[in-house]
Amino acid sequence: MSRSREETAPAIAAEVAGASDAFDRIIAFGQAAERVAGLIPAGSVRVEAVSDRTRLRDRIVEHWASSNQSVLAVAGSRTFDTAWAVDEALGTLLSLEAVGVARRSMRVTAGRVEFGLISGFGAIAVTGTAPCTETVIPATVAGMGVVAVAPSAFAGSAVETVLCSAPLRTIGAAAFADCPALACVVLPASVDAIEAGAFENDVSLTHVDVPEGVRTIGPRAFAGCSELAEVILPTGHLSIADDAFVGCHPALRLLVADGSPAQRWAGERGVAVARRRATASRSMLPGSVSTGGVDYHVLPGGMLEAAHIDRNLVEAATLPDEVEGLPVRGIGYDFVPATSRVTELSLPQSLRWVAAHALSPEAPIRRVTGANRIEARGRGDAVREHVRFRGHRARDADFIRLSLRQVCALLDVALPREVDDSVDEPYSSLAMSFFASQAGSLFFGTVDAPEHPAVTTLVPSMVDRLLERGIRAFVADAPVHDSSGKSVPCLVHPDPRRAFETLCAWVARQHDATTIAVTGSVGKTSTKEMVRRVCETTFATLFNEGNQNSVAQVGRYVQELSSRTEVYVQETGAAEPGRIESEARILRADAFIMTNIGVNHVGDYGGRQDLLLADKLSHDRFMPDDGIAFVNVDSPGLQELPLRHREIRYGMSEDADYRAVDIDESDGEVRFTIVEAATGERTPVVVNAIGRHNVGNAVVAFAIGRWLQIPVEKIVEGIAAYEGEGLRQNLDVIGGRRVLVDCYNASEVAIGSTADALQALSVADGGRRIYVVADIDDKLGDITEEVHRRVGEELADREHIDRFYLFGHHAAWIAEELRARGRDVWSTTDRDELTAALRDDLTPEDVVAFKGGQQMALSITIDALFGTSFVLADGDVLEKRGTSVDVGDVVYRIIDEYGAELRKVWPESGLTEVDVVPAVHDTPVYMIGRSACSRTSLQRVRIPEPVRTLARAAFFQARSLVSVELPQSLRNIGPSAFNGCSSLREVIVPDGVTTIGHRAFYRCTGLERLVLPASVRTIDAEAFARCNGLTIESPAGSFAEAHVREQYSAMKIAGV
């Protein structure tokens, strides 16, 4: 019983003494508890005084477990702490009716469900917000553990499958009642109570596994479930209402443990039973922890909510990311009260919610910093004033994360016999490739030789690598072992790849995003990029990065779908027979684009283009009835396709539904007009990228936009926003010269298109157009020589290209054809020879283009020539050629044929100084990698020769960095390399640096002196913006001096 006012203590004591004969134990809880206990007359029942809510919870748990017929009477249950203790102990929902609960609550919607977030208690699923057949009750919403499904939350709905996650503990009264289609319910071991009528009249239920933690099954919980024939019941203490299973199947059988309360209950009522093995009970979390003058409530799921702050703390208070290994996720109700003296509050990046009225408006808080990933913010003027919140950001519950128990249910396989509490902990992701995996993933692979090349073989060394990466468990076709022979957690499944596809397809079905698949022999990635640019003008759009189009990557991106995603654009690519069929089965796209059909990858299909085409057309078989195929009718072989769905034709042909006319290409852009056949409307369009092949991409992007009913002006805006980048159609200025980088992959058609784009580029007086061409796709099979020779014949007609450099054994056939036709050709199969020849030959006035197959890794050659970091944009090179090496607390990566990069200094290492090594395992270090030292505590860094590159964001927001020594070998300072390095005072850029990237020194607010050499020939936009008080020293008449005077008129310039 709970009374807090001191003057009521005698009255309470009298009441207790009068009722003492009815109870074995009486607990007085609250501020007056000690006084009440002291006033009870001698000889009466012993009264225990409890003032802490966690201790009260534990006492209730002990009492409940002490007898098979426990009774608990609670007086004063409307006080929040009393209600919390009972709810935590028994899984009740008294807190929903407690005094003041509305003031500490807020509502959010995520993943088709409305949730209530209650400070000090947890989150509850209140109701479904949209009709759906499959419902996932997530582990958390906005970082707060979901502890209950509210009464009647989904009653009467059309739901068929319900997957619940830990730390859920209560299924409220009638929560899923009268759901006639509900056939599958998966409950985690964390559930304590199934309340009255929770699943009443769910006539499609045939089997239920009641988790081990359940203590109460309420009246009519499963009444009227006429097909329910088997129920697995817990082995521990359990209270079951007499009518819990009334009206179930006549042959209802209960699986119980010998000697359990469930067995006794069934025996007393003549219900058939079968035996099950007993399992261990789970332990409870502590109720609170304290550190640094702050008390934290431990909420279900093991996350912390800052509950009380010491009133003796003055001025500034800082909350950590975690305490005793538990993450700090929230700020609780009345955390900073009016009596607090704290004026500044620093919040951790781990924080996800700030409760209603967490900050009193009377508190002296002037400034709140940090925590830029808040997913839920409650009411209160002070909270809204001081806490930044982006309401459009997706919440954790907007995504679907599955636990092992849920995975087994969806795959229809038995849960492994030996499991622990982690069986209900959601995996961070489902993964089928090393680079798509992350800490906490469930990994799918094979122990024997894979049937599909894309499936990872789980040899012990690979298992070790995956475990080091943080993989929690595996799905494989046989038990998995590490290099020591120790078995690792594994779910055995006969076809791990199909299991991965099944689960990812299920995840995809839970979202309403319009899905657009892009396939074809070439042009998939640029088409995908243009389509997504158009979609982004109007819709929240998810798209795959680069050309990530394997089954593993499609599965990865499907898991990034959220309930806020409106359009999803995914590239799908061939590599072996059946691959696109697998991807189509996962995606079940609403529309697909067929860019063309050619010979790329035809060798993987036995040289048969018809089999290649059939695989690409798999999307047609898996689309919904109203799906649409967008087909490029300019591509030979695509004019007459056996499609089941509506077809929209695009291209430049007269019979296209959307066609391009009046095409004009000049110096890096293409202008043309799109004509809609149905209406005759003509729309002028500009593509800000090289190559006439982009015309078709733009036309289909326009057609997609019209299908999605995007306004025409927005479609045109999206197409214009497309630019080549990375290794694709990227016309870059490096060290004052123009370089056309288009070498992620190659085909016969694409080589010709890049040649045309090169010819359309203007050159300075005395300059030349130089084309570097490497081997095409290495999967052409028997037609490899034929295709390469044909390329040579076609290139010979490009008379405005001055010199050709050919690289590779197959490219030698191109060289032969060019020489035979009198063209200027240089050819080699040695990369070092190619690099040396180009370095000796190129002049600043030349324009050079690079084109070649992925396997030729021309990015390595470009980087060696210009000090760039294009190799980091080549995922296949990094995956196939990269090897990580730890040198102390610094991670390096050796890349075959390239050299090495400093890959990462982890912020949590706390390092303040780093001396970069010149070589790793005798391999020279050429680069400080992308984001390698970003957001670290580094203060001093010494970079030696032969480092030539600082990649994008190398030291991004390394706010403590005071000094950096740069080597004479340096050539390129990448975009945002020192962005936000506010403690830097002086930087001397060595002679030899040619390029300074976009925002390279942006917001270096403490930077006072920057020395730029005469060698600098390229400075990108905003390189020195927001550098207040900066003086730049540069030679008189240099490019750097002229650039600074033109772009930064207020900046001080000193001659050198």
The gist of it:
By secondary structure, the protein is α/β, with parallel strands linked by helices. The longest helix is centred in the middle third of the chain and has 15 residues, at 693-707.
Description:
The chain has 1056 residues and is α/β, with parallel strands linked by helices. The protein has six domains: 92 residues, Cobalt-precorrin-4 Transmethylase, domain 1 (3-Layer(aba) Sandwich); 171 residues, Leucine-rich repeat, LRR (right-handed beta-alpha superhelix) (Alpha-Beta Horseshoe); 106 residues, Leucine-rich repeat, LRR (right-handed beta-alpha superhelix), CATH 3.80.10; 211 residues, Mur-like, catalytic domain (UDP-N-acetylmuramoyl-L-alanine:D-glutamate ligase); 137 residues, Alpha-Beta Complex (Protein-Tyrosine Phosphatase, Chain A); 173 residues, Ribonuclease Inhibitor (Leucine-rich repeat, LRR (right-handed beta-alpha superhelix), Alpha-Beta Horseshoe), CATH 3.80.10. Helix content is 22%, strand content 25%. Helix 10 packs across helix 16 and helix 15 runs antiparallel to helix 16. It is globular, with a radius of gyration of 34 Å.
